[in-house]
Amino acid sequence: MVIKTDVLVVGAGPAGSVTARYAASKGINVTLIERRKEIGVPIRCGEFMPSNEEIKGMFPRAVNMEELFDIPENLRLRDTEAIRLVDPKMKMTDIPFRGYTTDRDRFDKYLASLAEEAGASLITDCAFRGMEGNIAKTSIGDIEYKVIIGADGPGSRVSKSLGLPKPEKPYPAVTAQAKGDFDPVVMMFFGGIAPGAYGWIIPKNGQANIGVGFSPKFASGTLNGYFDKFVEKHGLDVIGRKGGKYVPSQGPVRKTFTDNGMTVGDAAGHVISVNGGGIPLAMIAGSICGTVAADKVISGRSLEDYQTEWSRIMLKPLKIAARGKMMADLFAFGSDRRTGMCMKVLGKRRMGNLIRCKRIFP
Known about the structure:
- This protein has helices at 14-24, 52-58, 65-68, 104-118, 157-162, 223-233, 279-299, 304-331, 336-355; strands at 3-4, 7-10, 30-34, 48-50, 78-86, 92-101, 121-124, 128-132, 135-138, 141-144, 147-150, 171-179, 185-190, 197-203, 207-214, 237-247, 261-263.
- It folds into two domains: 3-47 and 60-74 and 103-168 and 249-322, FAD/NAD(P)-binding domain, CATH 3.50.50; 78-101 and 171-246 and 334-355, D-Amino Acid Oxidase, subunit A, domain 2 (D-Amino Acid Oxidase, Chain A, domain 2).
- The strands form three sheets. The protein has an eight-stranded mixed beta sheet. Strands 7-3-2-11-17 form a five-stranded parallel beta sheet. A four-stranded mixed beta sheet has the order 1-10-9-8.
- The chain has nine helices and 17 strands.
């Protein structure tokens, strides 16, 4: 039996769930599929959300902010006051930056529930395998669609099937939880583990999300080896299991649409290159993607409008961040000495601009 739907969304992370919600809210038939049996499990990100004010500052052209980022208080675990940048010699620089931490499994389930409330049909334990014409081949059978959305991460199978580009040179990263009481700041560590490697400690209630990522261009060791070194160096008490992923680091891909398909979130490179943050971008782009997909079904709207609109809001800041990341690769990540020197030269103000996707030099 073939499932028939107007819009098929592949991947029920923030990008996919928000896309499905906004498409379904216009009254069309939307199907959201997720390859995992349980949404949001295992956790594979830092679980940090900037405040609405910080998001608006980075993306001032974004609309519907209050509706999009109206998150229940029970999902806001710990308010944070700053991002603390730590150089290889453990010199710390605090950049005022408000936000909060969350449980990504519960956060993702909440966003998926909003999609269902809007009318989308959610199917878990359903893997996308490819397509033939307008038929998606999945692990539970065929799904016929009018528009398909790839929200299935940087290794997107939907992107490949549509002939769209995928993010280039994503960074491997691993994350876990650690017990303890931590300051209300997001700590970002650069160097001290290996050239081109970075780590983080993001506080929650009685524990923290910790993790390590690295550039294979500069570091030749293993991700697990760097993670173990980071844990030992900072005396962290790890609980639970680790989760790994790849993080886009080169900015958005050049094209995110075809005649009947689009990509969104990590699949489209909607990630801030300098810090790996992607949840707010995925949600902003998802709201646009879902709206355009529904309009395509209802009135024949061109899917090119999706790329035009997300580019208007996000492309300039993301390009600035990507250039900042490129400069870091060029000048800072060859050795711990170079990393420390570059952080010193940039100083607090310029590093704050870098975090916020703003130019660091005139």
